[in-house]
Design brief:
The chain is α/β, with parallel strands linked by helices. It contains three helices and five strands, in the order βαβββααβ.
């Protein structure tokens, strides 16, 4: 699974230098993440890089990269299962890889 982070989010999570990766061969496994705030609460907009299917992860902040990755994966899995697309996600067997990158060429 590829999770594309903004440069700012990548720096906050301290996950190492950003990498530019091609789209995942399975479009359901390629997502982009962009933080935003409402009042003082931090949230994360998650969008499928290919289809722009979106969901929001609320109360994001102060987490390490591992916990952050687990929460993101859980919310993406839940959204896809509710929409009837969870089966391909589970069948791929690649959900646990948690590849994390930024992709500056896409401005994300």
């Amino acid at each position: 699974m590829i999770l594309r982070l903004t440069q700012n989010l990548n720096a906050r999570l301290k996950v190492g230098p950003p990498a530019v990766l091609p789209l995942d061969e399975d479009p359901l496994l390629d997502w982009s993440a962009r933080p935003f705030t409402v009042g003082t609460a931090g949230h994360l907009l998650l969008s499928n890089t290919k289809s722009l299917y979106c969901t929001v992860l609320d109360r994001v902040g102060g987490e390490d990269a591992t916990r952050f990755g687990e929460r993101v994966l859980d919310v993406i899995r839940a959204v896809l299962e509710e929409s009837g697309c969870g089966r391909p996600l589970a069948a791929s067997g690649r959900c646990g890889s948690r590849s994390v990158s930024t992709d500056p060429s896409r401005g994300r």
